[in-house]
Amino acid sequence: MFVQQLVNGLMLGGAYALVAIGYTLIFGVLNLLHLAHGEVFMVGAYVGLALALAGFPPWATLGGAMLAAALLGVVVERVAFRPVRSRGSHVTPLMTTIAVGLVLQHAVVKLYGAEPVAMPTPFASASLELGPVTLSTLQLLILGTSVALMALLEVFLRSTPTGMAIRATAENPTIAGLMGINVSLTIVITFAIASALAGAAGVLLAWNFTGLSPFFGVKVGLKGLAIMLLGGLGNVTGAMVGGLVVGVVEALSVGYLDSSYRDAFAFAVMILILLVRPTGLLGARLQSG
Amino acid sequence: MVSEPLLAVDRLSRSFGKLVVLAGLDLSVESGGIHAIIGPNGAGKTTFFNLVTGALSPDGGRIRFGGSDIGHLPASRRTALGICRTFQNIRLFGSMTALENVLLGLHCRTRGGLLAPLLGVPFRRSPGEVAARERAAAVLEMVGLAAKAHQSAVELPYGEQRRLEIARALASAPRLLLLDEPSAGMNPQETLELEALITQVNRRGVTILLIEHKMSLVMKLSKIVTVLNFGQKIAEAAPAEIQRDPRVIEAYLGS
Amino acid sequence: MLSDHAVSILIFAGIDVIMALSFFLPASAGQLSAGQGGFMALGAYTSAYLTVHHQTPFPLALAAGGLVGGLVGLAVGFPALRLRGLYLVLVTFGFGEMVRVLFLNAPAFGGPAGFAGIPPATTIWYVLGLLVVLVYFFTRVSSSRMGRAFAALRDDEAAAEAMGVNATYVKLAAFTAGGVIAGLGGGLYAHYTLFIDPEAFGVGRSLFVMLYAVFGGLASFWGAVAGATILSILPELLRWVKDWREILYGLLVLIMMLVRPQGLLDAAFLARLSARGERAAARG
Questions:
Q1: Can you give the residue range of the structural domain that contains B168?
Q2: Which fold has domain A2-288?
Q3: Do B125 and C145 touch (CB under 8 A)?
Q4: What ipTM was estimated for this complex?
Q5: N- to C-terminal Cα distance for chain B?
């Protein structure tokens, strides 16, 4: 039973990690929090829903959602981030992302209604037995996909020129620019990747919960933020590990805590981290931007 | 009878990571005069000011003001005790007028919290506010900015902004005024006016600690000059002697 | 006399203005709180509990709601001291959510089913009365010692401290006062809608409060008044706005931030208004 929940937790955590990675990538290159990232995740899930309802196979659903999310991410960057990121005030970039998130959320409400809708899941009844644990094929698929995506990302960041450009820009945008890196383009690519991962997470979690609602994005978004803070701002590996940890903790607490308390737990963790970690380390990065 | 120095700093040190900015500085400022601090860039002068005012906390050493240890006091408390400063890069309050900036300088010399505005006669300024405005106007008059009282502080010409910063600091009725490169960016005419202002302020009983690069100003105004390099005092004497001190010359030429 | 419907619009608009002002106060000291909904909830539930279960007279219950809002504001203000900008937004947002979860799981307050049977005590006069007091308060504060301290902290905290402003005290005062105002708004809300549930004070509320104030402009409290009045009444004047409110307001704020980030009423505009006023007074 415990192992069962552990696997559940890893699966959940893998998807959370994908969202957290998106936040942390964007924070890394821009020093700004993308508060509409949860909404991008949610829109990705709904695109997946539309594709699944239209009869596309699961891999196309996932791929289509990732593509749509990536496009959306690029648009959001152009509209809500680029025009405001160099201005002094920190109110403005905050408000633009919140505004965009609000618009996306309610656009989806207009299209699909505020109530949760069912998501067709692949391999709904197939399962696998590994010793004491019964895993549904779906769970394996979800877990496997998130692990694969994270592995791909790691390889990408470490070995490809674009990946290294992203890491250089996160390190120091001015110097990266002087080294010949097209910082603006790198930022756009970062948004595309972060959003694609969020879109994937959206489909994976929709499969897991067999349903989704337009307000999905706020909850998962907040958890993603908490995980990012847990793992360290701009730290991709930290986001991965943090995501898995949070997923496992959440799965294990299912038996003990009411669901609304589980959400509050994520907020509490986030608040604690923000209070306990010396603001000097984190604050300095934010204020210099 | 030997009187206690107004400000006495003892083995003061501060590093930023591996960079040692101040390495055990000993410095005393006597009450009443104008004391200049000079040295090449990076010598630790502004850091020294930051430590004295409480913007930074020291890694080691003591700071005594008027005989008492102030090293543990927060910045706002030190201002109330009588230490105030201006900044190397002007830091006026952008959303306020010149008068309002000076009124803010009076913060620690006036009283009144959030409930105060609710009390008192409606549509009439409280007596405290009226008195404060008069004091602020007087300070503006002294620095020659009375006509600009209601102009946005950050829209004033550069030289006037510097004078406004001094006015703001003066409003707090300091015993010790720390001026960080007040003549930076000023033309010769403005520098002369600044010199007159500093002299006038000093005559009113405010001890002045001055970081400056313009040697003419240092020579004319200060009684004592302390030379810093690499976070330590390398010389301290009257201006005329400092000019001739070989160590000082080497510090400026060698760096 | 005004129709019941018109009165209802005015009361809700008035409460929105009160809430926007509750956001404006800490914001004017540089502290952006995305959790004003939480304080509103505390005021609403506290005052409703008192009037329903203890037959407390409304003015007293209302004051109690404001007091609870203030005390919790003070408590939240302490950890908020160490946080700036975005981090403060996140923490206050988390606070708002935690309050919502608290009331969701509190059977004494009705839980998810909400708290019903609240006596109708809010009239337009209560709302107007509080608004008049608040406008008077904010007008006086803006040219007072504390008002300048707020502005200084917001402009440059380190310089303000160097000039003798005790940032801790001033920030705490701002947060506490913001909590009191939001608590009062909550009490008025509860005794008008006669039924409250945790969802009424959630993310949506806190975000809208923030949007109203930022849209109107943070340079002066009049911005919060204008922003909240306009955005609150607009859906009533234009039916189609009501259905598309969130999308429309999101786009509106987005465009405002891109085109005129200082909001509707900015410092320059207000300066021109006051200059005109002074000239008129000189003439008249």
A1: 94-173
A2: ABC transporter involved in vitamin B12 uptake, BtuC (1.10.3470)
A3: no
A4: 0.92
A5: 41
| 255 residues of chain B, pLDDT tens digit each | 457 899 999 999 999 988 899 989 999 999 999 999 999 888 889 999 999 999 999 999 999 999 899 999 999 999 999 999 999 999 999 999 999 999 999 999 998 888 888 887 777 888 889 999 999 999 999 999 999 999 999 999 999 999 999 999 999 999 999 999 999 989 999 999 999 999 999 999 999 999 998 888 999 999 999 999 888 888 899 998 888 888 888 877 654
**Chain C residues near residue A270 by CB distance under 8 angstroms:** 90-91, 94
Chain A residues whose beta carbon lies within 8 Å of the beta carbon of residue C253: 95-96, 98-99
CA distance B152 to B96: 6
Q: Which residues of A touch C (CB under 8 A)?
A: 32-33, 79-80, 83-84, 87, 89-92, 94-96, 98-103, 105-107, 109-110, 218, 222, 225, 258, 260-261, 263-264, 267-268, 270-271, 274-275, 279, 282-283, 286-287
Q: Which residues of C touch B55 (CB under 8 A)?
A: 158, 161-162
CATH number at residue C17: 1.10.3470
C279 touches chain A (CB under 8 A): no
- Cβ of residue C89 closer than 8 Å to a chain A Cβ: yes
How many other CB atoms sit within 10 Å of the CB of residue C284? Answer: 5
**How far is the C-alpha of C213 from the C-alpha of C221, rounded, in Å?**
8
Number of domains in chain C: 1
DSSP-based three-state secondary structure for C67: helix
Of B112, B147, B173, which closes a domain? B173
Domain boundaries, chain A: 2-288
Q: Indicate the pTM of the whole model.
A: 0.90
Which of C110, C129, C147, C114 shows the shortest CA–CA distance to C25?
C147
Contact at 8 Å (CB) between B207 and B83?
no
Which residues in chain A have Cβ-Cβ distances shorter than 8 Å to C203?
218
Asked if C94 has any chain A CB less than 8 Å from its own CB, the reply is: yes
Interchain CB distance below 8 Å, C148 and B103: yes
Distance, in Å, from the CA atom of C212 to the CA atom of C204, rounded to the nearest integer, reads 12
Cα–Cα distance for residue pair A126/A178, rounded to 1 Å:
54
C90 lies within 8 A of chain A by CB: yes
